Amino acid sequence: MSSWRLDGKTALVTGGSKGIGRAVVDELVALGAHVIVVARSQAGIDETLAAHPGKVTGIAADVTSAAGRARIVGAAPATLDVLVHNAGGNIRRPLTGYDDETIAQIVSLNLLSPLSLSRELHGRLVAAGQASVIHVGSVAGIIALGTGVAYGAAKAGLAQATRTLALEWASTGIRVNTVAPWYTRTDLVAPVLAQPKRLEAILARTPLGRVAEPVEVARAIVFLALPAASYITGQCLAVDGGMSIQGLPYAP
Ligand SMILES: NC(=O)c1ccc[n+]([C@@H]2O[C@H](COP(=O)([O-])OP(=O)(O)OC[C@H]3O[C@@H](n4cnc5c(N)ncnc54)[C@H](OP(=O)(O)O)[C@@H]3O)[C@@H](O)[C@H]2O)c1
Known about the structure:
This protein is of the alpha/beta class. The protein has one domain (10-237): NAD(P)-binding Rossmann-like Domain (Rossmann fold). The chain has a 7-stranded parallel sheet with strand order 3-2-1-4-5-6-7, with helices on both faces. The protein is built from 9 helices and 7 strands, in the order E-H-E-H-E-H-E-H-H-E-H-E-H-H-H-E. Bound molecules: NADP nicotinamide-adenine-dinucleotide phosphate.
């Protein structure tokens, strides 16, 4: 089999009905994988299934609920080659504006749910032989970006969990990596990108001078799922147009 194909492989993508996750599903299908899409809304799943007849199946479930995760585990196949933890989101506030429940909700979605699901699917990943787990983090987990402490801390935790799990699971052939996007044109950040001053500040901070399209993040995620990435584990790859390496803007 080509190192650049996923024929015969099965992948599960949380949050695969919209935005970055949907682009991941499209790329995985194009490379030959069968994909299981998880999202809360059945309508979003149906739309994804209609775009890929016979190539995608769906599970309507909330990854933050034990019942939702049980539904995912119940429907997952006996061997799982690729697991993309993409479902995530934020409620942006200063620390003094958060109650404990909201912090717990953000940490649950962005950190605890991926870990629980990985644990519950571990046997299926081992059974696949050379599985790949990919966490969708954020550059907000690498540097401080005013996104609120809960989201930044959860995404930083996810990147660290990546290193820990990569070590813990290496002997079973499972690779674990994180992709950390910067602003990407999806519904999640549409309200931010619609504010001209915010957009101007974001673009000024981005050496490539534009926000990402979902497919540009998806391709990095899918690369890490490929046999071509067989020696890469425990890493956090920023897909950020150079944002996180810029000290000062270049001035010739
Ligand atoms: N867009 C950016 O600029 C950006 C930047 C950095 C990091 N990220 C990260 O990238 C990932 C994807 O973001 P996105 O912008 O593509 O988001 P999005 O457009 O809002 O899509 C989110 C997807 O996740 C699903 N989802 C949300 N909560 C869920 C839950 N509790 N259980 C199951 N599915 C759930 C949504 O479907 P339902 O609503 O039907 O559940 C949808 O399919 C997130 O982890 C986010 O933190 C995004």
